């Protein structure tokens, strides 16, 4: 169950920020020729290894970042957006539409317990269960392929917080990028990415026992046979959970994951 404020899942990504920082080098990446996608994505991993990302290096702080003082109207706007997301205000979507494109990138984010970390704003939206706000940010260019310091992509985080509308949006964007890249394996690779615990989004959906998420990811081609770091797969996890409970969700998930793809 998510906390009231969310984003405490980033306790392993702690830094010691003293300023509100906005890094904008990817703010319009989706609107550039599709070949650039390869370059940008390549910055966050090499080969088939999807390991942790150093956000400051990823966003090229020296050439494209901007540190704003407290008199900056942009900083104030983005702080307002973050606070609206954290408080789960209905104004968050309005603010995201208004100036969300200016706030893309990495933000120094202070959690309620005063820990700080650098985190992209769309991750903040997802872990505060604001999938509609995350979708607005995706439309404005937020990167769906970046991973955090413990290997979680937006798809992992959206699944962890049951943000089905964001999951669907991410999957649609993967489809679009795969077509543009003329790479039939692109979407499959992204669907089956693992975090540092070896978990795929499908594995997380099974953990959450959310049949709607499991069915969505399964129908989109997620592989239930990928084993996590400690050995079991999403399909095996589903069997284990069903063995401990007779819930309708557990039964439905096992039945679904045992089906053969046509």
Automatic annotation (TrEMBL):
Name of the protein this chain belongs to: Uncharacterized protein
Signal peptide, first to last residue: none
Membrane-traversing stretches: 20-43
One Pfam assignment: Ank_2
Keyword annotations of the record: ANK repeat, Membrane, Repeat, Transmembrane, Transmembrane helix
Domain of life: Eukaryota
InterPro entries: Ankyrin_rpt (IPR002110), Ankyrin_rpt-contain_sf (IPR036770)
Taxonomic lineage of the native organism: Eukaryota, Sar, Rhizaria, Endomyxa, Phytomyxea
Gene3D superfamilies recorded: Ankyrin repeat-containing domain
SMART domains xrefs: ANK
């Amino acid at each position: 169950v998510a906390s009231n404020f969310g984003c405490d899942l980033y306790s392993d990504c702690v830094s010691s920020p003293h300023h509100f920082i906005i890094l904008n080098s990817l703010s319009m990446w989706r609107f550039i020729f599709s070949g650039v996608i390869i370059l940008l994505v390549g910055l966050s991993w090499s080969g088939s290894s999807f390991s942790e990302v150093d956000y400051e290096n990823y966003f090229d702080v020296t050439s494209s970042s901007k540190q704003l003082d407290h008199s900056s109207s942009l900083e104030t706007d983005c702080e307002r957006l973050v606070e609206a997301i954290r408080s789960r205000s209905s104004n968050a979507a309005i603010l995201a539409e208004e100036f969300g494109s200016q706030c893309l990138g990495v933000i120094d984010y202070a959690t309620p317990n005063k820990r700080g970390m650098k985190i992209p704003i769309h991750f903040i939206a997802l872990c505060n269960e604001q999938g509609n706000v995350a979708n607005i940010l995706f439309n404005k260019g937020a990167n769906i392929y970046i991973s955090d310091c413990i290997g979680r992509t937006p798809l992992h985080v959206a699944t962890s917080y049951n943000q089905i509308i964001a999951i669907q949006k991410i999957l649609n964007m993967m489809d679009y990028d795969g077509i543009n890249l003329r790479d039939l394996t692109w979407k499959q690779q992204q669907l089956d990415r693992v975090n540092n615990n070896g978990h795929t989004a499908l594995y997380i959906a099974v953990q959450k026992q959310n049949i709607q998420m499991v069915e969505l990811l399964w129908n989109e081609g997620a592989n239930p046979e990928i084993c996590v770091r400690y050995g079991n797969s999403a399909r095996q996890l589903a069997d284990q959970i069903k063995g401990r409970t007779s819930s309708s969700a557990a039964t439905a998930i096992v039945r679904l994951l045992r089906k053969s793809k046509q």
